Amino acid sequence: MEKHRSYCPVNLTMEVFGDKWSLVIIRDIMFEGKRYFRELMQSEEGIASNILTDRLVMLEQEGIISKADDPGHKQKNIYSLTLKGIDLLPIMVEIGNWSLKHKPVDLNKHKHAVKLVKGGMKLQGEVRKALIKDHLK
Amino acid sequence: MEKHRSYCPVNLTMEVFGDKWSLVIIRDIMFEGKRYFRELMQSEEGIASNILTDRLVMLEQEGIISKADDPGHKQKNIYSLTLKGIDLLPIMVEIGNWSLKHKPVDLNKHKHAVKLVKGGMKLQGEVRKALIKDHLK
DNA sequence: GCAACCAGTTGCATTTCGCAACTACTGCAA
DNA sequence: TTGCAGTAGTTGCGAAATGCAACTGGTTGC
Known about the structure:
The structure is a homodimer of 137-residue chains.
Chain A: H1 9-17, H2 22-31, H3 37-41, H4 49-61, E1 65-70, E2 73-81, H5 83-86, H6 89-102, H7 111-118, H8 120-135
Antiparallel strand pairs in A: 1-2
Helix pairs in contact in A: 6-7
Chain A binds a DNA duplex (30 and 30 nucleotides) through residues 19-21, 36-38, 41, 46-54, 73-77.
């Protein structure tokens, strides 16, 4: 059996993110600072726990996030972005850009998205640095 | 019933493109110059005709593509990108960028993707101009 | 000890997806 | 005018994904 439908960049990306939840989870880890299962459960959109479990497993297998024990709480897991995950930042920014232009975004609720889109490469670089600091080892 | 799960830019975008095919179809229209149903059927990944129909209807309702009669053939439809669709170009480029770095892209088959990613803003601007010329009105 | 919290798991109904076959119409050539 | 290839889909149905609610087994704090 074949591993991929094709080896086109767009297709390979959609094989990973071609569902309604994966990128929303990445958003919460990347921009909302969420690092625990329970935090991710409280997404604005209301994800179900089994779907969240599935996606976290998939994203970890893809090497986009990593999972570690919380030293202060045996049962808690900390989810972090890998470099591969952090590298999704430019895609997120362009999605924000497109969405702000063409979709009915709630500007009051998502001021940080507006800021990031308007902030240009300089702000994006700063955000990237902060993510590397918080998520990589 | 609510129209959207939330009015976050990422979520609004995933409500449209959160499936395995929509962006692959856009890719074929945008980069492969495909404009007819039959051409789109021959995607490398092998889309089924009913899925293609569904997605084309959805993308048209979303205002991302438009559908027009072929003047030379009563039964043929020409699919074009709208400005909203053309504005997906930066997202495509960033997806290419990420994929080239982190996924097993077939570099020989997708040289034009490499070129577009390496070409920077200048080439992207040229491609955008060409798309506007070919697809709008 | 015990209630609240933690990360899931399970079962089941609903929805979506995907494949193969089929339809209805058009243009072309004999 | 008749057949045939080409056009954009539609239909039926089994498989997979999704969503909801309840449940599990362990941990932490009081």
